[in-house]
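Fig. S4 source data, part A: sequence.
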Amino acid sequence: MSDFVSDFWGVYIAVVVIVGLVGLTFLLFSQSKTTVKKGEEVQITGHIWDDDLAEYNNPLPRWWMLMFYLTLIFAAVYLVLYPGLGTWKGIRGWTSVGQYKEEKAVAEAKYQPLYDKYLKQDIKAVAADPEAQAMGKRLFQTYCVQCHGSDARGAKGFPNLTDNDWLYGGDAKTIHTTIAGGRQGQMPAFGAAFGEEKVKDVANYAMSLSGKKHDADRAARGKETFAAICSACHGADGKGNQAMGAPNLTDNVWLYGGTEKTIIETVTNGRNNQMPAWKDFLGDGKVHLLTAYVYGLSNNAKAQ
């Protein structure tokens, strides 16, 4: 209910719930009065299916009625104790957020000593510890697989963490900085400034840098534009700049794809990627374990 900007909706929901319960209680009470005397013929309601399947106005069994009454009583007691009537939190004051915080506090009290143990160790040493790697993997599967995949090989727009190609650097310190503080990667849109033809020229030059099949004439023209504009981020040699997360264009690793169509799309519209910052949410201990796990994915030989 905190998402609503007016108290009206809280009152509205409470009224709807109360009126609904009262209405159901009245309906059930009225039907419980329906009886059939001994020897009296049960009336047909008029509802007939398949020519001969008729609905009779038999009263509900008493045990069934009792179950309905118990359900209504349970609903009333629940709405007194717990949230359900608009902004009313119930006399117990329970909230899902409160329960989450309590469970989180219990878990942290139980596992924090273990996190502190690994927090005191060097990331490379933690990456070589099987127990720590197992913990890091579970953290990764909980928080990171949505973007990087269960095998950490990424997807379109999300980097592969198992190779040695890193936008910002793959050393332990840089990986920790990335996970803790997040990253904001942006490729400006040049479609309006370059025009369609010049975009194609630059795209073909970028393809030539990584040895892809390309139009030589367009690549020759695109080289001048690249040197004047694109080299500011990607470098004169196209090998990128890890300080600002500008990718290396001379290898065959492409975050969004290396086809001419995709590169043209990238140059025309630009790209905007964000890696969330996890320090405040996970805390130093979990970030440390995640860093060690990710570091170990592409440095297995060094970590062992």
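Fig. S4 source data, part B ends here. The longest helix spans residues 8-32.
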